[in-house]
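Q: Structure tokens for this one, please.
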Amino acid sequence: MEFIILIIIAYLLGSIPTGLIVGKIGYKTDIREHGSGNLGATNTFRVLGVKAGIVVTLGDILKGTLAALLPFFFNFDHIHPLLIGVFAVVGHVYPIFAKFKGGKAVATSAGVILGVNWLLFVIMVISFLVLLYLTKYVSLSSMLTGIITVIVTIVQQDIGLIIVTSLLTVFVIFRHKANIKRILNKTEPKIKWMG
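A: Here is the predicted structure, written as tokens:
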């Protein structure tokens, strides 16, 4: 019963449409009607700018972290935080509060990792920023960061993290199918703020 309760809470946390809230309250803009139409941080950066993008990124990360920490908050030590955190990612991608059309799972997945292994999170952030500097593709950097994360967990020999990061990485890549096509066609937009 405890597991089901935590799953529901985690899903509802993940379903909070940060990009939609920030856009409508702060900018009177529904970001679903602009750019890629996606509710995630990348589209927020493109449509609303750096400040809004940072707020949405942090909000989406926080959702995953809070979800992963739910077993700790409720003192349910027998429930693995990764199992609960995954449902926040599901909520982020398929949010009940936004007609089940959400983001691409990147920031919230990172938040789940932060709630379980802060060092791995730092490695993810550094990897993402380095890859973003080198490729200037947010989507490609996100997918490659996922792959690097899986490799690091294999080195760490943490079975739980290996399984969950592998699942999340596959999910992230799946959510970026259209981006992969655009990268191959050389039509995927590159970020401009790094020159």
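A few notes: Residues 2-184 form one domain. The two ends are 52 Å apart (CA to CA).
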